Amino acid sequence: MFDYQGKVVLITGGGAGIGAACAKAFAARGGVAAVNSVTDSGKKVVKEIEEEGGKAFFVQGDVSRETDVAAMMDKVKECCGRLDVLVNCAGVVENGNVEETSLKAWERTMAVNATGVFLMSKYAMPYLRNSQGVIVNISSLVAIKGVANRAAYSASKGAVLALTKAMAADYLKDGVRVNCISPGTVLSPSLEGRIAGAADPEEAYRGFVARQPMGRLGTPEEIAAAVIFAASEEAGFMNGVNIPVDGAGSL
Q1: What does the H/E/C string look like for 42-92?
Q2: pTM of the full predicted structure?
Q3: How many CB atoms lie within 10 A of CB 158?
Q4: Residues identified as active-site
Q5: How would you write the pLDDT of the chain (251 residues) with one tens digit per residue?
Q6: Which of 69, 145, 167, 174 has the fewest CB atoms in 10 Å of its CB?
Q7: CB under 8 Å to 76, separation ≥6 — which residues?
Q8: How many CB atoms lie within 10 A of CB 76?
């Protein structure tokens, strides 16, 4: 099951956390992982994949910049000549309600989390139409359930969920499937950094765990497993679907 032999998969935000776990999961199943990050963090993930006998290459770029996105797709074309799966995982988190959120923070969040998905999908679509490929977008529990102090982040992830359904409808006849994963709170390097930066890191950690009904945080690998399924041939009858992987947070 879930054989990606010969498939080319581009993962944005692949330098750490969920994105890195996705890149490794696809490569472990025979896929060629094009690992994107805005810094050079993706190089380390590529090296780890290659050390395990997998195939990967690094694609640096900022998903919120159209010139970067175009260059990224040019590199994928140059390296592989095709694209079968796009995983839109790059994202940023800003805290605060609408009064506390600056316009700069709002615009940055929307640029990366929502515009980035739009631009990547726009430039990938000609390749995915040829391969009858798949897009898997990473949204969030906050897109379907109100969470305090996440105004900008919630709005951006709600946009990702809505765009998923719009693209699924638009490209249905082209054979391109578009699905969405909505994680709960995942213990990623990003979250670890926010916890470490809190006034009381232990209390901050307990607070994140407390909002998960299952009493623990998720792992990047658990989210990657859902992505692998959503992009697979076995899930070929699934289109325009949102899969919450949230420790029962949406109940």
Answers
A1: HHHHHHHHHHCCCEEEEEECCCCCHHHHHHHHHHHHHHHCCCCEEEECCCC
A2: 0.95
A3: 17
A4: 153
A5: 799 999 999 999 999 999 999 999 999 999 999 999 999 999 999 999 999 999 999 999 999 999 999 999 999 999 999 999 999 999 999 999 999 999 999 999 999 999 999 999 999 999 999 999 999 999 999 999 998 889 999 999 999 999 999 999 999 999 999 999 999 989 888 888 888 888 899 998 998 898 889 999 999 999 999 999 999 999 999 999 999 999 998 88
A6: 174
A7: 8, 10, 34, 59, 83, 127
A8: 24
Q: Which two tokens stand for residue 42?
A: 């993706």
> What distance in Å separates the CA atoms of residue 11 and residue 124, rounded to the nearest whole number?
12
Q: Compute the residue count for the chain.
A: 251
Tokens of 218: 């998720």
